[in-house]
Amino acid sequence: MTTLTIEAREVRRRERLETIEKSLDRRHAKERRFRRMGLAAVTTGMVLVVILFSSILMRGLPAFWQATFYLDIHFDPEVVQVEARPVQEAGERAADFRDRDLAWQSQVGLVNWQQLIDDALEAELGEEIEARQTRDLRALVTSGERRALRDRFIDDPSLLGETKRLKLLASANVDVWIKGNIDRDLPDAQQQLSAQTREWADALHERGVIRNAFSTALFLNPDSRSSLASAGLAGAFMGSLFMMLIVIVLSVPIGVASAVYLEEFAPKNRLTDLIEININNLAAVPSIVFGLLGAAIFIGYLRLPLSAPLVGGLVLTLMTLPTIIIATRASLRSIPPSIRQAALGIGASRIQTVFHHVLPLALPGILTGSILGVAQALGETAPLLLIGMNAFVSNVPGSPLDQATALPVQIYLWQGNELRNFFEARTSAAIIVLLALMLSLNALAIWLRKKFETRW
Amino acid sequence: MPELPPSLLSLDRPGSALSNSTGPIIDFAPDASCLDVEGLSLAYGGKPALRDLTLRVPRQRVTAFIGPSGCGKSTLLRALNRLHDLDETVSRQGSIRLEGQEIHAPEVAVDELRRRVGMVFQAPNPFPMSIYENVAFGLRLQGGMSRRRMNDIVEWALEAAALWGEVKDRLRASAWSLSIGQQQRLVIARTLAVRPEVLLLDEPASALDPISTLKIEELIRSLKSQLTLVLVTHNMQQAARVSDYTAFLHDGELVEYAPTASLFTNPRLARTENYITGRMA
Fold it and tell me: What are the residue boundaries of the ABC transporter domain, all occurrences included (chain B) (predicted)?
């Protein structure tokens, strides 16, 4: 009787063990499956990121180098027929001198600078250029370069009569032709350059007069439509910079102060609950709505100038504030209550507790949140379109009230340019610049975080 | 400590001597009371935590609050330096007087009150600063103190907290580099540095190893010549070892309050005896 019971127990025990073993296999298999799925997800993500970055880099990097002429420009006195630059005489009023100087400058502006370039090209080509070929010749160097020559001369009038080796940008079409971004076998009717111009470009390229040189124009020039090859990012970059300054100066102090007040001092009642809900909702509002708001209030009501980085900065500040407030509050909340109690327990006031203990500890989180918010604003395009920042601006803005555009908007504008085979690469180059800016901002966030976290 | 009547020391008393009444029984009237709690009721968002509690804490003695979890002993301790002010859901009736002055009176500055009634918590909570700065922090808050005087006070406070010998050569080291037991003594030194009149200790040794616990207990005993101490503890032996008076709280009410020796050897109520003998968690 008892032995049977013992045997029965033994059988049941073994059955139980088998069940456990089987379930163990099942559970382990489940875990392996889950791990493989996770790994696959991460790999897919990585592959997509690599594809994205490599395609942008492959398209954009060549645009950092541009077909450039190395020409000996002779500032021929017969062409450049101007007087010596006026100097301020003793007793002359500053206004009078300025008038005389401006008159001289406009005289310089009337000089046929194109002639100097034509002469230099003619000398390089070593052949007589007939009048009917002038058009073909002038398609070689981009049109902005004659103004560059003028500016160079205004800066240094002693060039008169000198010969100087200068770098002149080739026109966008020559750049496309040299880089092979257009099918060389297309019939003449479909080519952007005449047969003559192409022949000259090839000849000059072979002799090293046209070289692929690093393009400073991309960084130093504003956008251009008349001289596409000299279109650059300087205007958009300065516009973005002004906006970022405004966003940082306004949104970080206001955001952090609101978060500190709401988190540490505000009473908990219906009003603060309502404010909290609304801040969370604002973070989810589509950015274009902020653009409409900016257009209505800052431009329509307050009469601030159109296309100005000031307005863009204000709009982006509104957009960034909820992000910064939410990040700051989360960071304040993560400070252990023991620190607050410790400070309060030895007689610190609430302000002292917050400023001596809570804020310094929350600082890494606040900084990270703020920088990510600012980086997001840096990449924002939609609201800027509504306040006129998609205008074509050919000046580098000197103040936040000047008309300007922004880097992401410039990308959008270039992306829509008709001269596809030149601007495709230029657009990617602009994307690379924007991405580099973003990455450095994020790197700054990481560095600040590390710096303030490992104080002790 | 007052002498106990010999009859109370006998352990073989009949069970019928224990009363089943709910109390409170208050077995002494300290002549010099530091804190007077009168009719204190406190509720967290309508949920009562303390009910009509009246007790007096004698000056320059160690008073222990014991009782099961959730009995309100920590709540009472926090009420003594108005740490509940931060929680808006807390409602309070009744009065607490420190040296005869109502601590809830509008003219009382709460930060000054908290300097006079210092608090040490269960888990040591040094600031993420150097050892020196931790102790000097309270002094810096007040401002207007010479470097020399501050150094003296920091040394005195660390000495008083029995930590000076262990840290005097590394005052600039991070407070987080100390062991947990040292950290707790550092926190006590930090509190002592601002010269409080009362020191509230909320289970100060429950996170510590036995040797550190012993050191804290010695420290508590040595400090009572200078200030009034109030100790909350779960550890019956600890209450018996260090306190002069013990209050047993249960369910937000004061059940029995007596000289420690008398309460532990001869509780007057059945509820008290059940708790101190471990029959009630």
Answer: 35-276
Q: Report the residue from B111, B127, B194 with minimal CB separation from A339.
A: B127
Q: Which of residues 378-437 of A touch B (CB under 8 A)?
A: none
Domain CATH for B106: 3.40.50.300
A272 interfacial to chain B (CB closer than 8 Å): no
Give me the number of domains chain B comprises: 1
Question: What number of residues does chain B have?
Answer: 281
The total number of structural domains in chain A stands at 3
Give tens-digit pLDDT for A337-375: 888 888 888 888 888 889 888 898 898 889 889 988 999
User: Between B111, B125, B142, which is nearest A342 by CB?
Assistant: B125
State both tokens at A264.
Answer: 């540490």
Whichever domain contains A263, its CATH number is 1.10.3720.10
Same domain, A133 and A25: no
The pTM score is 0.78
Q: Is residue A215 part of a domain?
A: yes
Cis bond leading into B24, ω under 30°?
yes
Whether A215 and A277 map to the same domain: the answer is no
Average pLDDT, chain A: 90
Interface of B with A (CB under 8 A): 81, 83, 86, 88, 111-112, 114-116, 118-121, 123, 125-129, 137-138, 141-142, 174, 176, 187, 190-191, 193-194
The answer, yes or no, to whether ipTM is higher than 0.85 is no
**SS3 letters for A192-253?**
CCCHHHHHHHHHHHHCCCEEEEECCHHHHCCCCCCCHHHCCCHHHHHHHHHHHHHHHHHHHH
